[in-house]
Input
Amino acid sequence: MTRRRTFSDIAFAADTDNADLPVEWARGVAAQVLEWTWQAFDQLREKHLQGVDFSQPLDQLERDLTRHHYLDLQQVFHTATEGFCSLLPEREWDEMESLSSSQAKPPAYDFAFVHIEHRRWAWPIEAKVLPTPGTLSEYVNEIHTKFVGGVAAPLVGEAGMIAYLLSGSADTFFVNLENRLAVVLEVVAEFPNRPHRTSTHSRPTAPTLRLHHMVMACH
Output
């Protein structure tokens, strides 16, 4: 079933006139939005994660961690920008570009940085809780079905994945992820001391994607 046009399609029609512009924008802001995301987790971990036993079963942990991470992200963002910035962090931002039908619910991102003027341009981040560095099924499935499939980040060539790691090491996670994806993970020059790598993925219906993998240890 095809869908009708959305409000965004009409109000921000010019956002897709030049397919190179959102790609260039996403590449240009990548280091900054990722730095804010890291700083927000540092703040969350220092203030609230210490002393929590993550080996115990906790209801809705992924949803809970993500929403608190987002609160700290807003604090970091507003402190850094004093309200003057060309983009805004959003929570559960709907990707209307990937709306499959008029009745369907659009996919949504855990976090997204949205251009204020070009509001169809979104820099998306998804988060997953990983009990161990080897429990990768949901994480890898998200990559293949959402990101490589072009459902997520359909207009831009940058996106992020957070692994909230509850035990084990980031190095083991990256070795396992390389094996599962059958790609080489690259160190990111802007984050040499962070457990932060990228993978590159060709997509038939969307720009080539540089996907950032950030291991945020909760233990």
Notes: The chain has a mean pLDDT of 95. Residues 20-49 form the longest helix (30 residues). The CA atoms of residues 40 and 75 lie 8 Å apart. The longest strand covers residues 122-130.
